[in-house]
Amino acid sequence: MLGLVIQRASGMAFPDFIQRRILNPIGMGDTVWRLRDGDAARLMQVYAYGRDRAAPPTAIAGLSAEAYAQPVTLYSGGGGLISSTRDYLDFLTMLLNDGRAGRVRVMKPETARLIRSDILPADLTAEGSGFGFGGWVARPGHRRQGEFGWSGAAGTQGWIDPEQRFAATLMIQAMPYRAVDILTELRPALDADLGIVR
Question: Where are the beta strands (DSSP E) in the chain?
Fold first, then answer.
């Protein structure tokens, strides 16, 4: 729905808008709607883990390079892009820097802050906290108050901490969600490395 609103307001096709207004200015050259020729070897395979975590994971055929190379039939505002760790970190850093990517202003500071602000009424929660325009927001009282981020089905993690001034992303590629639980140890280690006491 949001993609259609953007198309009508901008007067351009949704994928063109994303390319011209977000991907190009940030320099996200590895973020595409469809896997490019020659990039199949760079695409990380997604693995499925069974109930017995000791058994080796199996590759998920529907999430292969062949599947991602097929023509796109729906350009969705809620998913569908293929990206790299560096590109996603650059996107998160742009949000952290209030819409600026290096010397380029991608969006107004108010827009970047709005994206990462809690828009839910106080009596509604998302995973025990708030929700912004496209991500989870840690509400006051939460030990990670003010953080904004999102998790992908295959374990992708990306978050920004405006108060501590950092952005982080982690690409795991394992299903079901948190089949490989790195965050339990990684988050405290990252805080300790940055000297953050929560």
Answer: 47-48, 58-59, 100-101, 104-105, 130-131, 136-137, 148-151, 157-161, 166-170, 174-175
